[in-house]
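This part of the workshop introduces the protein records we will be handling. A record pairs a protein's sequence with a compact description of its fold. Comparing a sequence with its tokens is the quickest way to learn the format. To make this concrete, we reproduce a full record directly below:
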Amino acid sequence: LLKVLSRIDSILQSPRAPPLIFRPSKGPVQNYIKENGQGCGFEHLPLTIEMWADQLVALKDLHRSLRKLSLELLPWNTRDPQDNRESIRVEDLQLIVDGILEELEHKEKNSQTQSLQTLSAIVSHFQKLFDVNSLNGVYPRMNEVYTKLGEMTNAMRNLHELLELDSSAPPTVVVDTVGKLCDIINKNVTEQVQQLLGTQDIHSIINKLEEHECFFPPFQALIQDLLCLLEISNVDDILPAVQNLK
């Protein structure tokens, strides 16, 4: 028995052994054992072995949990399906962890490849939309589109404020409102021209304009001659100058 205990003790104290949670006490009981010669340095072995037994049980539970995780991430992997084996080794756990890590790395590489394909498709779509022939022209066209978009946004914001429209009003509402304002202005201008020329139809307006076109050139020439003859420069001075000649 002493040989077995010595062998176990040497295993526990070897560099490969895990750190011991239990340490021999230094109280009166330990001193009593040493004084009576009953202590052999193996008093901590039962608790240490019990702790190792618990760790072996926990190792089995950990193996079961890793198996469940592996089945979630790798449902096609059916290796080592039995969780009720008598002995579970650390190598078994490491194998499961390595398989999970390998699959995660593979998925990460695939996601990066898909991202590159997605980015390439986005660039190609941008080139088609904005008529860009080469990759070198993508960035300048992006800057141009960004600038134009900013100008259009500012213009729409100013129009919303000028027309007293809600900021959420779509561009079609802005265009319709501007069109209505143009119709109102054109109508007012037409009415003012009609009132000025004393006519209500377009043909009369044309006739009036033709009459004025025939009348004003000779009238303008007469005025210029009078200004030169009377040696004055202002039209308002013509009448007083003619009256002085009487």
The radius of gyration is 51 Å. Confidence is low (pLDDT under 50) at residues 21-40.
